[in-house]
């Protein structure tokens, strides 16, 4: 089901990112289309920044393992903290519907009103469930969603549409109706509660916040984040802040995930034959790993090498195109 997020696949990407970071400290940005000309990333066609949103990011890799931003929802607006996640598409927030398993106190939960429920036959419900279809018995049934995580955590809820208050980089505030999940049944198998009240879905899928902003023709389909090793950073939606001198890599258009073009593992400067790897970029994954076969292959190489230089093992991934 589309809203399910496979941590197993997605976490593969972080290793790629960490190796990548050697060249691009802490920054990732993705666009649905390749710029034709690298110089176009310097373009500032309008007077000042006007069609991007910039959010300060809090959190760190260790000890927290999360990065999050704050967003205001509803009228009057209420602020919630969201785990930023380029590996999933549906945004959700802990919701007093009432809730089982929510980790935030009741007055810090999102309180849904009846009129914001998305009906099962509404196109937004179809988008959330794509490529499957929502199971509607009656047209005015509510639109349910479920997200299962590979770590056996899960989130159940109902799809709603409510106003988000977002500030453009030029300072103007905009109130936009966005579709997201009101999560009222949470299971978290981990020993610690996640610090945020919800997850901000930033993947390539149509249900993601980025795609929704794009559909209002407000921002271009570009997102980027810079995360500091010391904690904190920023996230932007829109193309005003793309740093110059970026190296661009095609991202698979058919995938909801930001999937790299096929890569090969290089070890000690040499190709290893471990290739055609597709790597997912997922800011919502706390750690990075290879799939089993690749892991085994890399481990064998490392073990052989460790006999010679015990402490200095370096391997790199290179793109083949
Ligand atoms: C800021 O940008 C938005 C979106 O392009 C525009 O609608 C708004 O008028 C701008 N505000 C100012 C103060 O320029």
Outline the structure in words.
By secondary structure, the chain is of the alpha+beta class. The chain has 2 domains: 1-29 and 254-321, no CATH class; 48-237, Beta Barrel (Cathepsin D, subunit A, domain 1), CATH 2.40.70. It has helices at 7-10, 12-20, 123-129, 209-215, 292-306, and strands spanning 27-31, 53-60, 66-73, 78-85, 92-94, 144-148, 154-167, 173-187, 198-201, 222-227, 233-237, 258-259, 263-267, 270-271, 280-281, 315-319. A hairpin with a 2-residue loop joins strand 13 (263-267) and strand 14 (270-271). The protein starts with 6 loop residues before the first helix and ends with a strand. The structure holds 2-acetamido-2-deoxy-beta-D-glucopyranose. 2-acetamido-2-deoxy-beta-D-glucopyranose (NAG) binds next to loops.
Characteristics:
2 domains, three-stranded antiparallel β-sheet, protease, hydrolase, signal, six-stranded mixed beta barrel, Cathepsin D, subunit A, domain 1, globular, aspartyl protease, disordered C terminus, binds 2-acetamido-2-deoxy-beta-D-glucopyranose, TAXi_N, single chain, 321 residues, 5 helices, alpha+beta
What's the short story on this structure?
By secondary structure, the chain is of the alpha+beta class. The chain contains 5 helices and 16 strands.
CATH superfamily of the largest domain: Acid Proteases
Provide the structure class: alpha+beta
Mean pLDDT: 81
Bound molecules: 2-acetamido-2-deoxy-beta-D-glucopyranose
Strand order of the largest sheet: 3-4-9-5-8-7
Number of domains: 2
Provide the CATH architecture of the largest domain.
Answer: Beta Barrel
The helicity comes to 10-25%
Strand proportion, as a percent range, falls in 25-35%
User: What is the C-alpha radius of gyration, as a whole number of Å?
Assistant: 20 Å
Number of strands: 16
Family: Belongs to the peptidase A1 family.
Keywords: Aspartyl protease, Hydrolase, Protease, Signal
InterPro entries: Aspartic_peptidase_A1, Aspartic_peptidase_AS, PEPTIDASE_A1, Peptidase_aspartic_dom_sf, TAXi_N
Protein name: Peptidase A1 domain-containing protein
